[in-house]
Structures are given as structure tokens and as C-alpha cells.
UniProtKB/TrEMBL annotation:
Residues 1-22 form the signal peptide. It holds the Pfam family Porin_4. This is Porin. Gene3D superfamilies: Porin.
Amino acid sequence: MKKILFASSAIAAVAFAGQASASEPIKLSVGGYMEQWVGFADQDIDAAGGRVNAFQSDTEVYFDGRTTLDNGIEVGAHIELEGETSTDQVDEQFLFVNGGFGRIEMGKNDSVADSMGITAPSVGPVNPSDGGTEDWANLTNVIDTVPSSGDQNRFSYFTPTMGGFRAGVSFADDSTQNDTVGSGDNIVSGAVTFSHDFDGVTLGVSVEGENQADDNWYGAGVNVGFGNFTVGGSYGKVDPDVGKETDAFDLGVTYAMDAASVSLSYAYQDDSQDNIENQGLSAGLVYTLGAGVSWQSSVFWFEEDKAGSASDNDGFGAVTGLRLAF
């Protein structure tokens, strides 16, 4: 009974925190990024409409606001406005509540499995694991070791970091939402991470998973940093209720030197359901030109093998451009 009363008191403290009238009103600040790329891919097959455009771009504008109530609880909002889209103009939008109890997020956002998942280190505009190869080459599948449900209207809770450990859980009701009809299946996500510095050697580990109806995916990742190097990788498995499994992994290493960082990364995926194997390799460079301005480049190779199909595709490419963060 005491535990129930304590939990009720904690919820009430958040719910009635509005009584703290002396807190500052929320004012939105503006941030975001702009990426402009030029590149090419030499590949075996082209899409029906022709080759992929030699110019790609991605721009988002962020609106952030927060205030700290008199009881010490921080409340705020985050909104992402897409600069170029054919679907939703607003990408993510959610409110958050921070305190000694942890962090609560509510709105349209990634799951904790997605946001907390660790993957192989990589720099540059193209990463073989869910990093833009599909923007330059005509591929059926995208390698992804963290294939989460993406942005959904959901509730997420993150624990405080204790001894380097942090956990999170998300719940989404994927039904009719904001004039969009979903599958109607609940989506439950969970993740645990560990991060620590052992006398100059940094370690980051994640274990994550997600369930939707009777379909599951789960994975794990690790990054180790020492000196100017960071090495690591991740593994993910999709285990559907009906059909065959999909396995994916990635490996990478980065080296940082003053204003520049370079990387080499590899990824592989075996989709047993569709009998498609994908693999890719990329080398990347990021050079900081000034505050918020970086020149980035990648050279990459890819291969997609479809069993019994004449539409296999492989090739290579190169991309370069600027990224502005503001």
C-alpha cells in the first residue's frame, strides 16, 4: 500500500507542477541542419525512370523550448520541420519531462530501441548500414541492424543513469492516429545501455528489441574508444511470426585527428524471407571547416544478390558535399 501511495504522490507532483508560477515561460529556440551532396554511382541496373539524381539534399529545422519549474522538474518540447518532403512536413514532435526520476517523452518520436541502439562507428554521407547507400543506388533492401518501427505517436520512459547503466521502454498504439490508419498492433520497445571510461578506454554497449503483434526484432552493439580510434559493431535479427528471419551485422573503425576524422565500415544482411543478400563497404572523411560547417566525403561499394534473379545489382560510387549545423 505504501508503494502505491508513493507512486501516486510522484505522479501528482508532476501533474500539478503548473502551480510553480515563478518558472520562466517556454520560449522556442531554432536549430537544425542542412546537407547538400553531389555524387554518382556506377551500377549494373538502373530504375525504370533512369539513374539516381547526382544531387541530393536533406534539411531540417528544429524548434526547442524548455523551462524549469520551481520544484526542479524540467518540461520542454521538440519539433522537427522537414525542409524537403513529399509526406509529413513535421518529422518528429514530442514533449519531455526531466527530473530525478528520469526522462519521459510523449509524442511522435523514435522508440527507445532506436534512439539507444549502438551501431558501428562511421563518418561521411554514406554508411553501408542504414546510411544512405539507397539514395545513390537502386537497391531493393536496406541493411539495418536497428530496424525499428520509426516515428510513431508513443510514450517513452528513460531511467536515470546509474553506475553507467541506463534503461528505457516505449509503447505505441499503432492504430488510427492523426488521420493516419496504422496496423492496430501495439508496439513495445526496450533497451539497456552501459557506458563507462576505464582510464582512457571508453566502452559503450547496448541491447535492444521491439515487439509488434507476434513479430520481433532484437539486437546488440558495442563501441570501444582508445586514443584517437573508435572500433565497434552491431548485430540485429528480425524474427517474424510467419516467414523466415533476417540477420544483419556491421563493423567499423574511425580515427580522429584534429579537425578531421576518417572511417572504414562494412555491413552485411541476409534476408531469408525474400532470398536477398546485401553487403556494402564505405570509406568516409569529415573535415571541420568552422563552427557548424563540415566538408564530408564517402567512397562506397555495394552488392545485392537476389537468388534466382537476373536483377542482381552491384557497383561503386562517390559522394561529397557540405553539412551545416545551426
